[in-house]
Design goal:
Number of helices: 19
Radius of gyration: 21 Å
Largest sheet: none
CATH class of one domain: Mainly Alpha
Helix content: 55-70%
CATH architecture of one domain: Orthogonal Bundle
Strand content: under 5%
Order of helices and strands: HHHHHHHHHHHHHHHHHHH
Distance between the termini: 37 Å
Length: 357
């Protein structure tokens, strides 16, 4: 398929995704939701948004029995996954293989939930509602995996051989560190390697998507280095569990050789100066550098990059990936607000739980 025809193929999709972006909740919408006095009032506010279409608002209004955070998460996760998958059907045919591999994210995220829960010795009933996939075969696989008692058994029967192989290689480090994050990072390696490779094969029209994917990969790798250093892992072990893709961060050697705080200074002198500035502001405000603050800054940075993807020429795969990022943040925000209200958290506490652009 020629480059000349590509923009035409993305034109219909562009109309769809721009229209959906216009319906995303804005600052004023979040402000009203946070200031509501109860869950029923939240439901009435949401009834005029896209969330009024999924049965969530009716469930919140009826409340014959108190609704649980698990029920809210389940309803919203199912809707979010369906929303994104329905959108991928409008992508041009040339991008459908990418769309398929991209949507494996929902399955892999649930696989992470199972791994994390088994590591914590949780009962199936405690985490089952957080395991979701819109694909029937994938859901059947996840249901089988939940019935195994230990992580080695689970990993041995994962049908995706590439993911299984990476996870098996990660078992010794997992046993050494006693943290499931190394196993979750192994899944990241498999997933991001696949979608990066597929997007890169699509040519010029995928470059904006590669910018967003590459940014996520770079910042996840830096987070992995920070986390591993704080855990006292050796350089060789850290390097083994980095996603083997470098977008804009240059050589891993600089980061692997540096102390955690020095890593932020290295980022400041790289293409990620704006991101480093944000992290530095957090440190200077009196908070010590920790991974939760890093993750918060990372999410904010990726959000701003996604917003930029809608500027200029938007007939490309980047608008899909950017919309996914923004819609995911909206989903997480609405879920946090509802659960915050159910838990009787203060308005300030709820504000701290959400990301607004």
């Amino acid at each position: 398929m020629s480059f000349i025809k590509d923009p035409i193929n993305y034109a219909y999709f562009n109309v769809k995704v721009v229209a959906k972006k216009a319906k995303l909740l804005q600052f004023g919408d979040y402000d009203r939701l946070i200031k509501t006095s109860n869950v029923e009032e939240i439901a009435r506010n949401l009834s005029n948004t896209t969330y009024g279409e999924i049965g969530l608002t009716q469930k919140l209004i009826e409340q014959k029995e108190p609704i649980t955070s698990q029920e809210i998460d389940g309803l919203m996760t199912d809707d979010f996954q369906k929303h994104i998958i329905d959108l991928t059907k409008h992508l041009p045919r040339i991008a459908q293989k990418f769309a398929y591999k991209f949507c494996k994210k929902f399955y892999y995220d649930s696989l992470k939930v199972i791994i994390r829960s088994k590591h914590l010795n949780l009962e199936k009933k405690e985490f089952k509602s957080y395991v979701r996939s819109p694909n029937i075969e994938e859901m059947d696989t996840l249901n089988r995996l939940m019935d195994y008692n230990n992580l080695t058994q689970i990993i041995d029967v994962i049908p995706e051989w590439k993911i299984r192989k990476i996870l098996l290689e990660a078992i010794p480090i997992y046993e050494q560190t006693n943290t499931s994050t190394v196993l979750e990072q192994a899944i990241n390696i498999g997933y991001y390697s696949e979608i990066w490779k597929e997007a890169a094969s699509l040519g010029v029209q995928a470059l904006p998507a590669l910018r967003l994917i590459g940014t996520e990969i770079d910042l996840i790798n830096i987070e992995t280095i920070l986390r591993s250093k704080l855990m006292g892992m050796e350089r060789e072990s850290i390097q083994r569990w980095l996603i083997p893709i470098k977008y804009r961060i240059g050589s891993f050697d600089l980061y692997l050789s540096a102390k955690p705080l020095d890593i932020i200074n290295i980022l400041y002198n790289s293409n990620y100066r704006d991101f480093a500035n944000r992290v530095q502001e957090i440190i200077e405000s009196g908070d010590e550098l920790n991974l939760s603050l890093y993750e918060q800054a990372m999410k904010q940075y990726v959000i701003h990059q996604a917003i930029k993807a809608f500027r200029g020429i938007t007939f490309n795969l980047g608008t899909f990936y950017a919309y996914f990022i923004l819609k995911r943040v909206e989903f997480e925000n609405v879920r946090a607000i509802i659960i915050g209200k159910i838990s009787n958290l203060s308005q300030d506490a709820i504000k701290d739980m959400i990301q607004i652009w």
